[in-house]
Sequence to fold (225 residues):
Amino acid sequence: DQQVKQNSPSLSVQEGRISILNCDYTNSMFDYFLWYKKYPAEGPTFLISISSIKDKNEDGRFTVFLNKSAKHLSLHIVPSQPGDSAVYFCAARRIQGAQKLVFGQGTRLTINP
Amino acid sequence: DAGITQSPRHKVTETGTPVTLRCHQTENHRYMYWYRQDPGHGLRLIHYSYGVKDTDKGEVSDGYSVSRSKTEDFLLTLESATSSQTSVYFCAISDPDGSPQHFGDGTRLSIL
Fold:
């Protein structure tokens, strides 16, 4: 049972435009959500997060939106740059406890010049 | 860099042999985790530790064991490796303060 889903395996965006990556979850007990970025042969690196008490969090070019009623979150990158080409993972957890992460399958983002 | 070292970085071994992967941290973080990454599955939690000698199972723990005798080291052991355990393994660390987990660069393990 996939509790966190990223339904788009890949996304191609032109440099300078907006990239929107989507993520859905099924477990209503999740109250903290994170996005990680991963380059080949490296570990995932933390990008941005949001708690369930908010609906938006912004950090420079990156904004995460949370729609709790729809159990949906999205990551917006604007403007997209070639260095943004990577695999992006959505992850969820409960704030309390051992902070175990449940990951989506990942979306490969390619930024075209 | 978060001060996490995984060793070895690459390993090829045969079915039925024991394998131990090591995660070493210099951050003195209390929590440590082992994940595996497979196509179509993202990362899945194998085992985690919330302190020295305190460990628990994750989502895909069958066939794996762990040990944590010191804060800085978390070992993952495959007692008798199978081809289904061919994967990339990532270690992560965090603290109880809720800060995001930080990951090592992974170990690519191939079981032939």
Notes: The interface with chain B takes residues 4, 6, 32, 34, 36, 41-46, 49, 89, 91, 95, 98-106 of chain A (CB under 8 Å). Chain A has no helices and eleven strands. The CA atoms of residues 76 and 87 of chain A lie 14 Å apart. The mean pLDDT of chain A is 95.
